[in-house]
Structures are given as C-alpha cells and as structure tokens.
Amino acid sequence: MNQMTMPVLPQMNELWQKTLNWQPDESQQQQFQRLYELVVEGNRSLNLTRITEPMEFWEKHLWDSLRGIARLLPANHNSAENPELSAESVLKAIDIGTGGGFPGLPIAIALPHLSVTLLDSTRKKITFLETVVPSLGIENAATLLGRADEIARVPQHKQAYDLAVLRAVGAAPLCAKCALPLLKNGGLAVLYRGNWTAEEETELQRAIEHLGGKVESVEAFTTPTSQGARHCVYLRKVARQFDRPVR
Ligand SMILES: C[S@@+](CC[C@H](N)C(=O)[O-])C[C@H]1O[C@@H](n2cnc3c(N)ncnc32)[C@H](O)[C@@H]1O
Predict the structure, then answer these.
(1) Domains and CATH numbers, the chain
(2) Which residues form the signal peptide (predicted)?
(3) Model-level ipTM above the cut of 0.90
(4) What is the pLDDT of residues 1-11, one digit of tens each?
(5) pTM of the model
(6) Choice from 121, 132, 182 to test ligand 1 binding pocket (greatest atom count within 8 A of CB)
C-alpha cells in the first residue's frame, strides 16, 4: 500500500471530542481521508495549499474549518436559548473564496442538513471542486464560479444565505463587504482570522455601518496541536441595506 491508499489521516477522536464536543462518524472519517488524498493529488497541478502533512492537514484544514462553526455542531447548539442558531434555521451556507474547499467542504461533511455553496472566482479551483464533490459522495454541496460582489447582484443569491464563511480571502472589511449582501436579515458571517487587533476591529466596524452588519462576537483560541493563534469574528446581518435611510 502506498501513502495515498492508507488511512494516513489521524483519527483524533479524543481531540475532536475535547475541543469541539463532536466526533466524525465512520463515513465522515472516510470522507475526510478521501478529501485529504484528493487535495494532495490536486496539489500536483494546482496550487491549492502548502499544508499536505497529515497531522497539519487535520489541524489547519479540518479542525480549523469546523472550529469556526463549532456552535452549529450537534450537541453545541441550543435552539431554545439561541433560536437563530438552531440546525433548523441555518439551512443555506456559502463559502466565499473557498479555494480547495475550505472551510466549506469539512462543514458540508459535518453538517449534512446544510446546503453549502462553494464560491470561488478562479475557474481552476472550481473545476477541481467539481470533481471532488461527487468523488466524496457529498450531496449537500454545489460549486459556483464568480466574484462575490457579482454573485450578490444575482437575484437567486442576493440575501439568500443563513451563513457565510470566509477564510484567507482578504482584509476583514473586504470580507464583510463580500458576505453581508449575500446574507438574509439575521444571517451570520464567520470571518476566520489568525491574529486580530483593535485597529482591525475599528476598521471593520466602520466598513459595516452602512452594510447592515454588526460585530456580534470575536472568539480567540489556539489550535489544538501546534497552538497557533486564531480568531473568529462573527458578524450578524441586522438590517437589509435598503432598509437603512439614505443620507
Ligand atoms: C488564499 S485562497 C483561500 C482558500 C480557502 N478559503 C482556504 O482558506 O484554504 C483565497 C481564494 O479566494 C478567492 N477569491 C478572492 N477574492 C474573491 C472574490 N471576490 N470572490 C470569490 N472568490 C474570491 C481566490 O480565487 C482564492 O481561491
């Protein structure tokens, strides 16, 4: 057996459980393993990621993708306390600038009730994902080629999503400008960041004032094996743009 056919991805059941209060089942483990193999294979012709070591892939692609939406994983959301986060109310998600499928593909695998749109403006990334999605047997994810600002003007996508996730797409104000027009009123954007400064938060606040968004919370944490610094910025869409008075 070569490295590509062995289940080389660490299972990490204890760490999944301890850090996210969740564990993938057998079929989700297999999908993560196959995703790993396809990304390593795809990397030979496409510049998808620098992270190809199994342990690093687990932490920086799989775990990191799911940490941002940990509150939506079964057992973590309490729909009575937090109705806008219940599994029943978060149905449509979009991963803006998904690249090789992160964080959108691990999210689609972990939350099969969610319908996930994988958006990217680069044709070759979408072509890659068009083969990955069926190859993993994922039925709740679809690819979409285009720029977020253009897609947000298409009636089918404008204010159509409950959840938007963005990782490594650009500065936070740009991410907010991409995400908020795609969200329904009450929808949530998760900006996956490394470090996060007070200056960045001020700039973000300024940028979202006119877009009907508010910073609901910022979570700081470290990754579980290499202790890398991470922040997730949660933005709530509180008003549709056209609800706000034009000054
Ligand atoms: C550095 S990659 C990050 C990929 C992935 N999110 C990750 O964390 O591994 C940024 C991706 O965002 C895409 N992108 C940048 N601006 C975009 C936009 N305005 N609309 C859609 N995709 C965009 C690029 O084509 C690229 O694939």
Answers:
(1) 13-74+88-237 (3.40.50.150)
(2) none
(3) yes
(4) 344 455 678 78
(5) 0.92
(6) 121
